[in-house]
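Quick start: load a record and inspect it. Here is Membrane protein involved in the export of O-antigen and teichoic acid:
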Amino acid sequence: MLIGQASINLTANVLSALLGLLSVFIFTRLFAPHDYGVFLLGVGFASVISVFLVGWFRNLILSGHARNDGTDVRGLVASGYLICCLTAPIAYLLGRLVGLDTAAALAAVVLAIAIGLFELTQDLLRARLKALSVMKATLVRAAALLGLGVVVALVSPTGVLLLLAAASAYLLAVLVQSRRAWRGTIVNFDRADLRSLARTGLPLTLSLTLLAISSVTDRFMIANLIGAADAGKYVAALDLVRQTLMMPAMSMAAAFFPMAVQIHARQGDAAVAVRTHLADCLELLAGVTLPACLGFALIAPHVANIVLGADFRAVASEIMPVIAIAVLFQVLTQQYLHASFLLSGRNSFYLINTASIIAANVILSYVLVSLYGTIGAAWARLGADITGFVCALILSRFAFRIPIPLGRLALIAIAALAMALTVGALDRALDLSDLHASIVLIGAGLAVYAALCWLFDIARLRGRLKRGLVMFHTRSANSNVG
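Running the structure step on this input writes:
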């Protein structure tokens, strides 16, 4: 079931990422760096506000809605979200405070509310493992953003209008899945329930909001110290890396987090099944993320030349390899180690972990951006993500003790390093265009890593393939009989 849910999530995210890459390909050619920078700064600000708006409900949905035992938390979620949206004027003032102009701040707040509603709707569906519905909305959002963005670029290529186009795309995606996620919901402003929700959700909301702040600190640091155009170049490269590499990790986490909650709810802390499930999840997560990050770091200059516009490529070629390694630590922290805090109910640990990340990011960003410019922001992000990983690893020892199967992880590291050495050596020997070089290098890397996965039986690959073949033959035989 884990593989099936993760596969559907991955398919949705792959298609969404392809549309996202196409958007970046088009937007970095149709928009000037300054206008694209305004858009990306607005998106970064909106992401922080949206996290604050929905953070109160994340654990409620995961721990209550995911159990699928008849509990309906949607009315409480809807009423709570409406109350949270009353903070929009404060959000606008904060937008002006961090440097957004009047129009950009207003558009960013509208986008934040739209993102929050979209994420809540997606969370409700993910908690019930309705991966196909999640996939449908994800694709609608990505396609709508691309289409509306092109219209904006042709009519009036400004960052503010692109922000409003993004908000419209999110709202359209919510409409597509609103019946399945929200049908039958009764909004009830129960004061006792709302107070309890606020009390229990405060630590996680603060930590997630601070984490979101830490993820955009570097772009606003660049915008204020250097300029919006340089921030646009930096964030275009940053988002290209994160959109590509976070995709498989988030797909798997969207499947195994609810499953872990369900197993834990049925069998408790002492259950071997929970730890076995988490160990399998970590092996699968690392087995996909580590080679992806290393491979992307090696071919980053080729990718930058293919995807980004001419004004964005030089900066991207420098920072993308560093960001790719940073993403590895971010994935392991957020998509695995944070499961320890969720299963133990230690919401305060989210806050502690996030505080360590934001402190490291603010200090390192200010120092390194001042000294080295845009590339300094990339190194600051890497340092902050390593700090967060170490802090989360230590905290997890005092929460739910999630397994760290070192032997299985060592085999993944060996296979990934062998793949990286092969790709690096081949890249130095090739004399091809960026597109053809990328195709050859990706193909060679996949072949080497797949062979080593089979040899080392990483993530029990041989057994899973055999079961898949048996299932396929069985279904084929039954179909022929029918």
